Amino acid sequence: MEKLIITVALTGAQQGKGANPNLPEQPEEIIQQAIECWRAGAAAVHVHARDREGKPTAAPEVFGEIVDGIKAKTDLVICLSTGGAAKISLQERIGMVPALKPELASFNIGSTMTGRYDFENQKWLSDFTLSQSYSDLEMIARAMLEAGTKPEIEIYDPGMINNALLFEKIGAIVKPMHFSFVMGIPGQINTPTPKHLLYLSESLPEGSTWQVIGIGVHQFPMATMGMLLGGHVRVGMEDNLYISRGIMAENNAQFVEKIVRIAGEIGRPIATPDEARDILGLKKR
Length: 285
Ligand code: KMH
Ligand code: ZN
Hints:
The protein is α/β, with parallel strands linked by helices and 285 residues long. The chain has one domain: Alpha-Beta Barrel (TIM Barrel). 36% of the residues lie in helices and 22% in strands. It contains 10 helices and 14 strands. It has helices at residues 27-40, 60-73, 90-93, 96-100, 134-147, 159-169, 194-202, 219-228, 253-266, 273-280; strands at 6-9, 44-47, 49-50, 56-57, 77-80, 104-108, 112-118, 123-130, 150-155, 178-183, 209-214, 232-235, 242-244, 247-248. It has an 8-stranded parallel beta barrel with strand order 1-2-5-6-9-10-11-12, surrounded by 8 helices. Strand 1 (6-9), helix 1 (27-40) and strand 2 (44-47) form a beta-alpha-beta unit. The mean pLDDT is 97. Zinc ion (ZN) binds at residues 9, 12, 46, 48, 81, 83, 106, 238. Zinc ion is lined by residues 9, 12, 46, 48, 81, 83, 106, 238.
């Protein structure tokens, strides 16, 4: 079986320390947890940034501080998030791409809705629509192409694979493409079942690579299915705050340790960061 790339999404733009106090927010915490994940067997990290008040930011300086800190101590593949958050404009979201020219950056290839409802108090805790037109998407794709950044194409419903094919046709994305299947967000079409994962993975153009991102309780079951199907996995506290049912994660390295254990049991060897670069067709460091 091909070596397994373990990516860790260390922290997101939605949940904060209020949801899990161990969630890293500040650059020094993010860097420290990235190093621990690398030691545990991660090949890549997916990075979001926050300002000193803990609000999501896309500022290239903050991303730059995190990237420099991770690069100083590890050879991890670094994927920067261009997903942004409410009140962050499209231009701001992708500003770090030309500024930092990351190896990988997330590319949400369509519009998505995310929300969390508090049933007890009957109100929305978060309610965010990432609204992107085709020309917005083309702009993001071309910014990545120009910077030499490989897009990590985030797929929230199968139709978004068609968008990737369209942008490849017009020369804004080049093959081989790398995809993430985000599975288990209510209201989005990638239902977290084996059937859906099989369908998604079989719908990709020849030569593509992919990883599965299971949200919340779906994280480890979907990761295991992904590993069995020959895909790669993303785990970590951006997507799931619990290391097992009812038990809050103490840090991100715990997720890597758990995946390494499962991969060992099913006979899937783990990729080093440089092996991940080979698999993804990234330049050597
Ligand atoms: N929040 C995840 C479900 C991004 O950062 O651009 C998908 C994600 C997207 O990580
Ligand atoms: Zn993200």
